[in-house]
Amino acid sequence: MSSPDSSLIERAKLGDSEAFTQIYEDSYSRIYSYIYYRVSNREIAEDLASEVFIRLVRKIDTYEDKGRPIIAWLYTVAGNLVRDHYRKDSRIQWMPIDDREIVSDEDPTLQIDLDLSSERLKEAIKHLTEDQAQVIILKFVDGWSNRKIADVMGKQEGSIKSLQHRALRSLRRILEESENMARSND
Q1: 136 — pLDDT class (breaks 50, 70, 90)
Q2: Is the pLDDT of residue 82 over 80?
Q3: Other Cβ atoms closer than 10 A to 27
């Protein structure tokens, strides 16, 4: 069984730079978004996303077409790079307050509330399993259908629905625990 990307992959294996460019243009924003929600740092996300595509170029000749789109392989590479990143560098990286983006001069508290909510969500996603995090990011950040997620992850659509349900339950529990800890520290 061949994937919809078969001819594109074959062209890339032959060194066709336009094929690599097309894969990059079709996939970069999704891979970057996936990584960013796992590491919560733009520079690290950019570096890791770039590394995904460097590995694509270096290892395309070892890629085996198993009927899944190339983006599925890129997500696997991205997930491995994120895990490696956390193994190598488990230190918390602080952003200086001066580097924060302000949405509006009129209500800076709104931006702070949005930043805190976003940071709590990104932190909570880090505590999910790899599959749960991928489903949450693809579904709610990238807006993918369950069918498309199932194709990319090589699972049945029903499995994706179950995984999504478990992931949302876990996220709710993690966020509630975080909220309770914050209240008890006040």
Answers
A1: confident
A2: yes
A3: 21
What Å distances lie between residue 183 and 5, 109, 153, 178, 179, CA to CA?
A: 50, 19, 38, 9, 6
Q: Rounded to an integer, what distance in angstroms lies between the CA atom of residue 39 and that of residue 149?
A: 21
pTM above 0.90, yes or no: no
Domains of the chain, with CATH numbers?
Answer: 1-94 (1.10.1740.10), 104-186 (1.10.10.10)
Rounded CA separation 142/81 (Å):
20
Which ranges constitute the DSSP H helices of the chain? 6-13, 17-39, 42-59, 70-88, 108-125, 130-136, 146-153, 157-185
Closest CA to 69 of 147, 163, 167, 161: 147
Question: Please, what sign has the CA dihedral across residues 171, 173, 177, 183?
Answer: positive
Q: What is the pLDDT of residue 109?
A: 46
pLDDT digits (tens, 9 = 90+) for 39-80: 888 999 999 999 999 999 999 988 887 888 899 899 989 988
